[in-house]
Amino acid sequence: MPHERTAAFAPGRVNLIGEHTDYNQGLALPFAIAEGVLVRGETLPARAGGEARVEAYAGDLGERDEFRLADPPPARGWRAFVRGVAAELCRAGYPLTGARLAISADVPAGAGLSSSAALEVALCLALLDLGTGGRADGEGDRRELARLCSRVENEWVGARTGLLDQLASLYGAADAALRIDFRTLEIDRVPLRLGGWRLVVLDSGQRHAHASSGYNQRRAECARACELLGISSLREAHADAIARLPEPLERRARHVLEENRRVDEAVAALRSDDLAAVGALLNASHASLRDLYEASTPEVEATVERLLAAGAAGARLVGGGFGGSVLGLFAPGVAPPAGSRHVRPGPGAHVLED
Ligand code: GLA
After folding, report:
1. How does pLDDT run across 152-195, given as a tens digit for each residue?
2. Which of 19, 165, 317 most suits a substitution to test ligand 1, by most atoms within 8 Å of the C-beta?
3. Is 165 a catalytic residue?
4. What is the pLDDT of residues 27-48, one digit of tens each?
5. Are 28 and 21 in contact (CB under 8 A)?
6. Least buried of 34, 162, 227, 313, by fewest C-beta within 10 Å?
7. Has domain 5-190+346-351 been given CATH number 3.30.230.10?
8. Which CATH code is given to the segment(s) 194-343?
9. If DSSP codes are grouped into helix, strand and coil, which group holds residue 181?
């Protein structure tokens, strides 16, 4: 039964380890966080003989949008996400109705916590709940929605991001990280038993937008490396073949290979409750993102330094880099620096019951 009113929540995410691996069919270990995006909606009946329309209100910005549900014209900023989600759901054949939507968020935009995916996923669940009465909430394969949201980001927003953020938001669990294999899209829950340890994020203060950062360039470099190696993804690459690539492609590919390995080392460390080993892996991941992938900035480096100076067992940039937040892991009794935000795993995207 379609609902006339809905409220859907989708979380942001922190990627524990496995950065810039998703679009290389590699491995990652994200978890959904408690903060995210809430979309409240109600059906908007079409006027007699008129087409179904969507009215959207971004509460935090005090801005509105209105467009025809099917085939809306492109737009920029937050409007690109709303129009893109509505259009892609229609194109995929989901029966939607006109809707009035109100968006609010408690995850900061551009801070590397995946506010974009949270917005896409919450919009999807809200529109689907109004249109079909919950087909998306648990029944269908959520991988299909992740791909759809990723198309929105690629084609409507212009960021060629992978599936990491959407899968983390859709599949998150309250007490676990998710080991995702992007070759098979297999997702395994890995219990995140932190004991007295704490994970925090510290904002570098430098906003990033994937559509305009070095993100798309890194992706193109990986594609070029594959072309030269005659393979379809870096997951198939061997270390000796990579060594013969021209720079900077050799460095980019080496990061991806070694980062995949670190993901499984982190899974093993978590399974044996060895959080000190997880800290060392975070540091190794950051060094690789800085030196091989060159996705860090002076602001990010200063933020890593602040965390390490406060006694973090490990610290690394999270998300695409080129700004955003830094993740820090602190042993029991060690205080994170002022301004740090404590993060812990939270449930995946869901429709709220009224
Ligand atoms: C961003 C993208 C993800 C992923 C990370 C880097 O968060 O949205 O798809 O590529 O960067 O790991």
Report:
1. 999 999 888 899 999 999 999 999 999 999 999 999 999 999 99
2. 165
3. yes
4. 999 999 999 999 999 999 887 7
5. yes
6. 227
7. yes
8. 3.30.70.890
9. strand
